[in-house]
Amino acid sequence: xxxxxxxxxxxxxxxxxxxxxxxxxxxxxxxxxxxxxxxxxxxxxxxxxxxxxxxxxxxxxxxxxxxxxxxxxxxxxxxxxxxxxxxxxxxxxxxxxxxxxxxxxxxxxxxxxxxxxxxxxxxxxxxxxxxxxxxxxxxxxxxxxxxxxxxxxxxxxxxxxxxxxxxxxxxxxxxxxxxxxxxxxxxxxxxxxxxxxxxxxxxxxxxxxxxxxxxxxxxxxxxxxxxxxxxxxxxxxxxxxxxxxxxxxxxxxxxxxxxxxxxxxxxxxxxxxxxxxxxxxxxxxxxxxxxxxxxxxxx
Amino acid sequence: xxxxxxxxxxxxxxxxxxxxxxxxxxxxxxxxxxxxxxxxxxxxxxxxxxxxxxxxxxxxxxxxxxxxxxxxxxxxxxxxxxxxxxxxxxxxxxxxxxxxxxxxxxxxxxxxxxxxxxxxxxxxxxxxxxxxxxxxxxxxxxxxxxxxxxxxxxxxxxxxxxxxxxxxxxxxxxxxxxxxxxxxxxxxxxxxxxxxxxxxxxxxxxxxxxxxxxxxxxxxxxxxxxxxxxxxxxxxxxxxxxxxxxxxxxxxxxxxxxxxxxxxxxxxx
Lengths: 299, 269
Hints:
The structure holds two protein chains of two kinds. By secondary structure, chain A is mainly α. Chain A has twelve helices and two strands; from the N terminus they run αααααβααααβααα. Chain A has a two-stranded antiparallel sheet. In chain A, helix 3 (39-55) runs antiparallel to helix 4 and helix 10 packs across helix 11. Chain A starts with a helix and ends in a 12-residue tail after the last helix. The model of chain B is unreliable at 265-269 (pLDDT under 50). Chain B is α/β, with parallel strands linked by helices. Chain B has a single domain, classed as 3-Layer(aba) Sandwich (Rossmann fold). The longest helix of chain B has 18 residues, at 186-203.
């Protein structure tokens, strides 16, 4: 049991790192109402860019900034496929994701790159979990604060309106195409940063590290929503809920690993969890009675 | 062009599915001129081109021919979001005019920034709330105390009233109402029409209002047009309009459309 408890701080750290990624998913899925599959590729792109730059002696902060820019470009490409070429959002994301597979291999010059914390100056490492947790805690607070402020600005409100009702947004003079670009770019920039942080923490970047990220991210978003649902409707709390959801997800993961349950099944369980949580509200609504159009003015 | 002309549509053509067996000419050389302050009601059967006309003016897509001049400015090729600065719009579907997941005050704040370049300035300031509450109070629907509620919680009638308020907020050059009471029950529809009258009068808005209710079309506004096959076939205003009856309109329609009488809902109700 001691071993099990000892593994928990590591699970929380993993949860916070993937929580950053899940924040990116939240922006596209919940705010922009687009299921963006680009992120499966962007996680690794961020990690690959960061790993290559750090191992070539570039400052870690600069490396992370460039990783973020790489993610932003990936998001912009998906936007181009979706908005300019009219390809359905899901397929547009898949196309970018597939392209990124090649791009990521080219960036790394192979399937993986080691980033030893003993050789290179990184911000966090699983060799020092307590320090990593402090760093990640601060990072989470900063991300929540910045996004809370951003989505309260005119641009932020316009992005929210775009995701909520495109026709209304255009009628209110909002350039919905541009707002989708900002949203997709911002989301993938954040996801790339999550990849860059993950590669430092685990000490390597790997071509497979983003596989299923969208589902993990959605699971975190959904678990978080279930937890904070009755606490507050404040936007900052909702964002914090995404981190909470991700931490819970990784604690469960760690538990499953500890009790030697077949980890091959984890991706299937994540996918089923997402399917159930997205499907149940729909079925409830369908069974719960037909939608009434109009209604009384004073009702 | 007369300087008092607010809207001049010249030879507007819009085809859907061009070049296919499903080709439909929705607007067929439509000409229409609105004077500043005109309140025009629009009637016509299904497929007459009423909504298509409003969508053409709004810029939902580009027209295939003709020109749209609003208050002296050619807006024919302006994208929808840029035209929005000059237009107030209310749709038939109460869900369409507002953002359901956003608060009442956030919706109003979006409308009050219509046509303004979006920046990192706050999406809503504290000082705005008082004026929103005041405007909502005039609607008399009990919304003035519910500023921070999600619009999704409101009834269809409340949402249409809110959309009207938002549409009129920035003193648009033209107010476009696309059967905005059709999805409401009769009592609510009457209430929303009453609010419409008041907002149009108070702001002296040039207005195009589509309705399927002939009585409403006669009672409201200073001018009435009837559309058929993508063109205006009847155009009456002033005293002549005030004297109209539903029977007159039906007779005029039968004559103008070449003796072919349509018995669809839009004409008879």
